[in-house]
Known about the structure:
Elements: H1 12-29, H2 32-56, H3 60-71, H4 77-89, H5 93-106, H6 111-123, H7 127-140, H8 144-156, H9 160-174, H10 178-190, H11 194-207, H12 214-225, H13 232-244, H14 249-259, H15 264-277, H16 282-294, H17 298-315, H18 324-336, H19 340-363, H20 377-384, H21 404-408, H22 415-445, H23 449-462, H24 469-479, H25 483-496, H26 501-509
Amino acid sequence: MRASAQQKPASPLDEFDRRFAAANSAKEAGDLPAAAAASEKIIALGLREMGKLRLFEAAYPEAARFSRRSLEFEDVADAHVDLAAANLLTSRVDEALKEISQALAADPRNAKAWSIQGQAQMKKKDYRAAVESFEKSLEIRPDRETSYGLASCLLRLKEKEKAAAIFLEMTVSYGDRSGLHLLFGDAYRKATLYGDAIREFQRALSLDPKVPNGHYFLGLTYLMQSEWVLTPEARRQFLEQLRVDPGNFYANYLLGYLSFSSHQPEADHYLREAARLNPSSSEAWLYLGLNAYRRKENQRAERLFRKAIALAERSGVDAHTDIRKAYTSLGRILIASGRAAEGEQYFEKARAIQRNILADNQEGSGMGDSGGSGLSSADVSSLAQNEPPVPLGGTGKDAATPSGSNALSHAELKQGQERQAAAQEKFLRSVLGGAFSDLATVEAMQKQYAVALGHYQEAEGWDPKVPNLMRNLGFTAYRAGNHPEAIRALRKALALAAGDDEARAVLRELGTTFPGQVPQKKEDKKP
């Protein structure tokens, strides 16, 4: 089925209201096919919004799963775009491009799709194609992030004058702000134009000596300029960043990373602080583990490696970081301690990760791109996962309003945002629980018991408090021949409504006990 185009969709709440009204009308008319279709539309929208929420929370594998599932109920361009964004943020570049091609086939005027395609093409180092995609996006809708992406591509193509013109236009539009110069410096740095990058970072610091991560980026540029030799000037900038902002994860991590080979106590100090500041950084735990392993503290190293691996696998980026070192080292510890079978499993995973990295490098996908440092992904791949964002400014003094997937790729939610996200998830769970239950009820009325059972179970996963859900699930499971599931659900239904004689009768027929049942004595049982 070809995806259908969406033209200026309504706000999610308005669209939910429209779809709720359609579902209610179908129910009132007794039109079962229309009621099922209306429930599927609600489910599709709910899953898409859950995917967007997970993107915002930087939970990219879940975002991809929800977007993909939504396409099973409604094939629209918006879902393909969101799935492409999630794939891109988990380094599945080819899959992202495949989803974008479907979105653009349905909606060639989708500016976001063109922009994400440009970002994916940048990852593939196809900068000329990325320029075309960004330009098409800007023709449809002006956007700061897309303009920045275009300028960044032009720098990679060594078209500095065109890029500088875009940066000047951005400065005129948004003011001579420190945050913008930080942004420009980062683009120059990634294009290996270090002199220009240093100029921009210094300008940012002259406008605001405490601009977020300003000294870190300046130190990082000095470091890359010296081919990753920690010069006194680079070290001075990292230490200055910690003086200005002692809780800066990035400066702590990089100082620990760079001290790893030469000064283990110092590396441990900075890496422990980095892990404390950002417990979700798999690389900080990895290098702490490697330090412990060097000291032959194998039990501690094992705990640290397992933590690093769990975090990396949860984020979905394990194939493109140094995390393979955790798998290899953990495998050695396990084999040395007599757990050879488990150790071999970790070795196999390490080999799979290495194969993925080699394949990416052979394809020129840019996944191992160190920004022109001259080092391979094996040397500096962990740095890419631990670079701070350089957000595109909104309103106010160097505001950092997230916009698009670049900002989302480093999402760190503030307390207010966390509350808002939690409230949105609660609403969406209620919507999805109710819609899956309604869909299952229609299917059960049409005697499609096996299909209905699956949807009732999905409803329970979203919101087990949907009225009559466990009762309906139990009877549907019974009619579908799934007696263990019928028993489980009907027991729960009886716990909620002890007077349900029908549920009690089915449980008795299935030969099981239920809440409130008084066991019969042997002599009281009838023959």
